[in-house]
Amino acid sequence: MKKCYLKKGKDRSVLRGHPWVFSGALKAEVEKAGEWMELCDHQGTSLGLGFTENGSIAFKSIGSAFPSPEQAIVTRLQEAHTLRKDQGLVDRKDLDIYRLFFAEGDGLPGLIIDSYGAHAVVQIHSRAYLEHLELITEQLVLLGYRAVYLRQRSSLRDEKLEDGYLMGKREEEVFLENGIPFHVDWEQGQKTGFFIDQRDNRQLVRKLASGKNVLNLFSYTGGFSSYALKGGARSVVSLDSSQAAVEMACRNAELLDAAQKHTGLTEDAFDYLKKMPEGFDLVVLDPPAFVKSPRSRHRAVQAYKRINAWAMKAMPSSSTLLTFSCSQHLGRELFASTVRAAAIESGREVRLLQHLQQSVDHPSRMEHPEGEYLKGLLLQLK
Ligand code: SAH
Predict the structure, then answer these.
(1) Strand partners, 113
(2) How far apart are CA 110 and CA 129, in angstroms?
(3) 288 alpha carbon – ligand 1 mean position (Å)
(4) Do 74 and 25 sit in the same domain of this protein?
(5) Residues paired with residue 345 on neighbouring β-strands, in sequence order
(6) pLDDT at 292
(7) Residue-number span of the structural domain to which 119 is assigned
(8) What pLDDT score does 291 carry?
(9) Whose CA is nearest to atom 9 of ligand 1?
(10) Is the CB of 175 under 6 A from ligand 1?
């Protein structure tokens, strides 16, 4: 295997277990992304395996515990499955949907696998996994999956690559999350078809929704909306700029026989928030990641502040707001202070009830705080 050398003094973060190596830390420039290599310190001592990337992160490490990528894939997949089992997510009658494998958090950067009943949806973010797709499929079969679907076109940003079934075919249309049925489209939908990271926060919405008029902004296929309907909401509005997502949110409400309480709006959330109607006493704000890179942080912070202030201004007294950011480059503290600034700007008295985060099947390593990307606040407006 080829070797890749760190500059002198640049090995500390890798030795501490951080999986990313920035381009400035490498002796030579990366020639080709997605190549497995052995990472060495400046004297040639091995620090383990990993693969090259292009961009400011030039190398992603899988650590020194494995003699080969194949060994790492077999072991890490089994460990990830055991972790989900221990957390009570596997083999449940009321739960088909969970994340089986979460990249760095499960020990293999760039590899994501979601579980939809007997279907595994694999999303790769590095070409390094292309040569191991057969092995990954084999391991998934051993774990009981009957179909394996690969999504790579959008995550590898290569229109020439094709997505498709590595094994089996789609057997079902509807999947359960905490007993609530959802249509999931992993072929055309965003990411792998469903935002599984919000599962626990959706349970919270189910608990809070009874008798409420609920507004779900950036709703995608209405994950929060269906939980609100199931929790006895009086009315629910799902709003998203994607027409396909809103249509599916409506179909998901139909699965609950609650279409008459549900309204789907295909609209820009910023435009809607500027003239947001009053009277929504439970609002969910779950925008896409506004911070795409550390450089865009300032503008993104302003956007988070604006949407939160607009929502707070229009919400009635004794109402509840769940507000989120899934930007990896925006830390929990900065997000909280941004929402605090929005509260001050809105002139409302706002109380913080709870910090929210991604569900347990999205683990992050303590040495890799970037993996803790989803943060939210449960707020009460006086
Ligand atoms: N809350 C959702 C996930 C939201 S992901 C769930 O639980 O499933 C972010 C969503 O924001 C995507 O569906 C995307 O289509 C939508 N979106 C992005 N920009 C938008 C905009 N300007 N206005 C409205 N929706 C937008």
Answers:
(1) 101, 122
(2) 8
(3) 6
(4) no
(5) none
(6) 79
(7) 69-172
(8) 80
(9) 288
(10) no
